[in-house]
Design a protein that fits this description.
The complex is a heterodimer of chains A (365) and B (649). With 365 residues, chain A is α/β, with parallel strands linked by helices. Chain A is 41% helix and 18% strand. Chain A contains 13 helices and 17 strands. Chain A has a six-stranded mixed β-sheet with strand order 10-7-13-12-14-15. Chain A has a three-stranded antiparallel β-sheet with strand order 9-8-11. In chain A, strands 1-4 form a two-stranded antiparallel sheet. Helices cover 31% and strands 25% of the residues of chain B. In chain B, β19 and β20 form a beta hairpin. In chain B, α3 runs parallel beside α6 and α6 packs antiparallel against α11. Chain B is globular. Chain B starts with 5 loop residues before the first helix and ends in a 6-residue tail after the last strand. The chains are: A alpha/beta (365), B alpha+beta (649). At the A-B interface, α1 and α2 of A face α13 and α14 of B.
């Protein structure tokens, strides 16, 4: 139906070749890949996103764990090659279940198999989609004045207007949002608001914020899926629409913003596809807690640990984040988006968002 | 008030009878309460029985029975197969306090003070009013004498109530029956423990215990060899007190001071005697009987200033590593311990008294992991059941940081917790007990230190053992998995690339990158007439008796070189001192009493060497694990052996 997989097969074979050649030369086989951790991400000037640095780790058959990883890698590349041959795809979860039959190579949890799939992306510079692997999670919801053309499973082009052609739950972002699957026909909005919680997304929909403020509302569903981030990135890039991120006020939500704006640590190898460097954080900020006198909860031990870890996270090193994180540690409190309901159901759309948007220069006062 | 005169006081002054003395001091003699009284009574009887059997070289068979016919009253019966007691001595031995043969002798024995059994007779008499009954037979073809006796507490003399002659099956022996006030319910457990422990340190003894309800416990003999006879020695000058010195001088047959010193003391030769006299500023030909107190004092002081050889230590009779191990193994069968380790120290002395420490450690199996370790304390083969807290053994255990050796211990002090039983045996010509009840060894620094050293040796061996086991297990798992995983990796990759499967042996060797040592021990029963008597490969001193029949212990050590390069190193295998070395293959470079050494020739990469040796003079299970050491190779390359640290460990 679409692109040529010859290149993918070549890259996958090269993984098997590396191991085979080691064995033939009677060397202990190993694979090298970048360390995928906070300590090994660097800002990439070219793409304006955070990508993996120079630190490498070796998976060597010298250790038992390493040998297991190599065996699993062999099984996985073999499986991927097979899927490409027979023109099928599978979800990550399906692959995990299939791996149950891999004997010594089977995984202990799906996290392990997901993580190895990511490793393979890193090693081969292919994308998961090239491997015919799909994520489990469906994409998030979108409501606003844009028209999307999607190529459906029947291979038909279908135009969808994200207000008129959808119900109140909006347009659902498919797992594949590449040009071969969707394209943006028109977009008449001033900005995108990416919202963490479904409750707040529905509040804005019910209050018709998309119409009254010419906004495209995107529900992130917590830590956003790759397709959601890719969708936002493409709209920002192709239609030049500014992106604002609206989340709860706690360390985990700050990480949601970071993954949208700077790239997530786990997917730093493809940050330039997924991250939208110009994204801005709208709120709720720790300052908002004070300024709007919001109802709060006490920070837990984990919250505090996480905030402190963010202080050493290279992605949070600008003065805005440093000040806000320090302020939150000082307050010892956190708050939720929906805490704004303290002042009534319309307060967020009538007062909070307009004030914040004006402050950020998105709308005129 | 009228003035009290010396005459008035004199009216009140009179001899204290032994009964009164006993009544007031019964707690320090081990009769403090009805439970203690029961155990002390059994103990005194059993100790006597064992001592007397050993003195005449008879393998002891001890029979203990307790009858509990009335509430609070027990009849304790102890019977031995010793030489018996001549008729006229019976009343003295059982009916007089402070009467005995061992009090004056300086040698290792269980009883020392001569209070023992007569105190039990007195206690029984005082608490029940009943007489003790003693049966004794001294010759196989003669009848036994039965004497019923009481103690005249005013005179400290026995009063014979009745005398009879009976037929007794035994060739010879002694049987005592004493009624005492005792708490059987509470004491039962202790009696059992005492007898069991006694059996552990007296593997040559067979002990039967019959409970009031008829239940019989049988503690088997695990060794047919009597302990080495303990030799009587003369006092050592370092240990002699001034009073003793004066008394000895009064009774000596020597007419000159130098002769007195040489004849009556141990470790005194011409030179030391001369040096002592010079230091004391005394003429050597002084008549010791005419010396003044001041002269004795000077001599006593001079002893401390002169360098005198340590006393001979052949007067001690330690149990020996193999026998301790065998006994512990036998007694802990139900626990199925992971291993048993024994460490013994060479003899040492304190204040002129020789002593020796032996320690055993039972580890793992069904032993609870989170409770305090169990300690079995022994002095001259007698179990110590009480006052553990005040004992030198406890002080020694508590002062070691057991956390280093894999035990739990709060702040590195006090009693450790872990799945272990400690056995500590101190043998000495004079055990320094904290009190007359002989339940705890006093904190003598020399003794405490020796206990500590022995415990440390054990602890290190435990650590080695665990370490070796863990390492071996890990490596074996790795090896097994690598030999499965790697071919799979090869198969998958070659299938994907459509190429032939590569040969993996060299890669597997590179991955393992170790020298693997594994061992196996087998036993082979041989009959007494067997002609395949093990051939000794070297001239080795050792017992020549009783190793021509019994069991041959066959040890096999396999050394596999999984390193990339060929290896050459020395290998040591430790062996029990009391074993006789048979066939050894390949030819060793050295056979010592406690180890065999090989210089292994170059072992090429991926090649292996088998080492075999045979041991005789041991029973099955005495040697159940090889202790292998290596030299001239990085120890971290080797799995299954530790670094050779020299001969002493």
């Amino acid at each position: 139906m679409r692109k040529d997989y010859a290149d993918v097969i070549k890259k996958i074979d090269s993984v098997a070749s590396k191991i085979y050649d080691d064995l033939e030369k009677t060397e202990i086989p190993f694979i090298q890949l970048p360390t995928r951790s906070k300590s090994n991400i660097e800002f990439n000037e070219k793409f304006n996103v955070w990508k993996y640095g120079k630190n490498k780790i070796q998976r060597s058959a010298k250790s038992l764990d390493g040998a297991y990883m190599l065996l699993r890698t062999m099984y996985m590349v073999d499986f991927i090659k097979e899927m490409i041959k027979i023109k099928k795809s599978s979800t990550l979860r399906e692959m995990y279940y299939i791996s149950e039959g891999w004997d010594l190579a089977k995984f202990h949890s799906q996290n392990e198999s997901n993580s190895l799939a990511e490793d393979l992306e890193v090693i081969t510079s292919c994308m998961r989609e090239d491997f015919k692997l799909r994520p489990e999670e469906d994409g998030a919801r979108v409501i606003g004045n844009i028209t999307i053309e999607e190529i459906t499973r029947n291979n038909r082009k279908k135009k969808i207007h994200c207000q008129d052609d959808v119900g109140d739950s909006g347009y659902s972002i498919p797992y594949n949002v590449e040009p071969e699957k969707i394209s943006f026909k028109s977009a008449d909005v001033d900005f995108i608001i990416a919202i963490e919680t479904g409750g707040m997304f529905d509040r804005l929909v019910e209050n018709r914020f998309d119409s009254s403020y010419r906004a495209l509302l995107v529900h992130l569903k917590g830590q956003p899926a790759r397709s959601t981030r890719r969708f936002i990135r493409r709209l920002n890039e192709e239609k030049n629409i500014p992106v604002l991120v609206f989340t709860d006020c706690d360390p985990w939500s700050f990480r949601i913003f970071a993954s949208v704006a700077y790239g997530a640590i786990k997917t730093a190898h493809i940050s330039e596809y997924l991250a939208t460097p110009s994204s801005q954080y709208l709120g709720v900020t720790p300052s908002d807690i004070e300024n709007y006198d919001l109802p709060t909860d006490k920070l837990t031990k984990e919250d505090i640990k996480s905030l402190k870890s963010e202080l050493s996270d290279p992605r949070f090193q600008d003065s805005f984040w440093k000040n806000e994180i320090k302020l939150q540690l000082k307050l010892g409190k956190k708050s939720e988006q929906q805490a704004l309901a303290k002042y009534g159901l319309d307060y967020v759309t009538d007062t909070y968002l307009p004030e914040k948007l004006a402050e950020m220069g998105m709308i005129k006062k | 008030m009228a003035k009290i005169t010396a005459h008035d006081l004199a009216k009140k002054q009179k001899e204290i009878s032994v009964a009164e003395f006993f009544e007031r001091n019964k707690h320090i003699l081990g009769f403090g309460n009805p439970t203690r009284a029961l155990i002390t009574s059994v103990k005194e009887g059993v100790d006597n029985g064992l001592d007397v059997c050993e003195e005449v070289n008879i393998l002891p068979e001890i029979y203990v029975e307790i009858k509990n016919h009335e509430d609070g009253e027990c009849k304790v019966i102890v019977e031995d197969n010793g030489p018996g007691i001549v008729k006229k001595q019976i009343k003295h031995i059982f009916g007089r306090l402070l009467y005995g043969s061992r009090f004056h002798a300086i040698r290792q024995s269980r009883g020392q003070q001569g209070i023992g059994i007569s105190a039990v007779v007195l206690y029984g008499q005082l608490t029940t009013g009943k007489h003790a009954k003693v049966t004794s037979k001294i010759q196989e073809d003669r009848p036994a004498t039965v004497i019923e006796l009481a103690i005249d507490t005013n005179k400290n003399r026995a009063e014979v109530i009745s005398r009879d002659i009976v037929h007794w099956e035994k060739p010879s022996g002694t049987r005592v029956e004493i009624n005492i006030m005792a708490d059987y319910k509470r004491g039962k457990h202790f009696v059992y423990e005492y007898l069991q422990n006694t059996s552990v340190v007296n593997p040559h003894a067979q002990i039967t215990f019959k409970e009031p309800d008829g239940t019989e416990h049988f503690f088997e003999r695990t060794s047919e060899t009597l302990p080495r006879e303990s030799v009587e020695i003369k006092p050592h000058p370092y240990g002699a007190e001034l009073g003793t010195l004066i008394k000895m001088a009064k009774h000596t047959k020597s007419r000159k001071l130098s002769a007195f010193l040489k004849n009556e003391f141990t470790s005194m030769g011409d030179r030391t005697a001369k040096a002592a006299c010079e230091k004391a500023n005394l003429e050597r030909d002084l008549n010791p009987k005419e010396m003044t107190r001041e002269q004795f004092l000077a001599l006593h002081k001079a002893f401390k200033k002169v360098k005198i050889m340590a006393p001979p230590t052949d007067c001690l009779s330690p149990i020996g590593e193999t026998l301790i191990k065998r006994s512990l193994k036998h007694e802990t069968k139900e626990i199925s311990p992971e291993f048993i380790i024994i460490a013994s120290r060479p003899p040492s002395t304190y204040s002129g008294n020789p002593f020796q420490v032996e320690v055993g450690l039972v580890y793992g199996g069904n032993l609870p992991k989170d409770t305090t370790v169990k300690v079995m304390r022994f002095a001259n083969r007698v179990p110590l059941l009480y006052q553990q807290g005040g004992c030198a053994t406890t002080t020694a255990i508590s002062s070691i940081d057991w956390r280093r050796y894999g035990f739990d211990q709060k702040s590195g002090k006090g009693m450790p917790s872990g799945p272990a039983i400690f056995l500590i045996h101190v043998s000495s010509t004079l055990i320094p007990f904290t009190s007359e009840s002989k339940e705890a060894i006093a904190d003598v620094p020399e003794i405490e230190n020796e206990i500590k050293l022995a415990l440390r040796i054990c602890a290190r061996k435990v650590q080695h053992h665990i370490h070796k086991k863990v390492k071996r297990k890990k490596t074996r798992e790795k090896f097994e998995l690598i030999t499965k995983i790697l071919p799979e990796i090869a198969k998958k990759s070659s299938k994907m690339l459509d190429k032939p499967v590569p040969i993996l042996d060299a890669v597997i060797t590179k991955i393992m990158d170790i020298v693997w040592i594994e061992d196996l021990i087998e036993y082979e029963k041989v009959s007494g007439k067997a002609t395949e008597k093990p051939v000794q490969t070297t001239l080795l001193e050792g017992p020549s008796e009783r190793h021509d029949s019994g069991t041959i212990t066959k040890s096999k050590i396999m050394v596999v070189n999984y390193k990339r390069t060929s290896q050459k190193f020395n290998l040591y295998a430790t062996i029990p001192k009391d074993a006789v070395v048979g066939t050894v293959n390949p030819k060793p470079v050295k056979i010592k009493s406690n180890y065999i050494k090989w210089n292994l020739d170059t072992i090429p990469s991926a090649d292996k060497i088998d080492i075999n040796f045979e041991l005789a003079g041991l029973e099955e299970g005495d040697f159940d694990e090889n202790d292998i050491y290596i030299e001239n190779i990085n120890p971290s390359y080797v799995i299954g052996a530790n670094k050779w640290e020299g001969e002493q460990s």
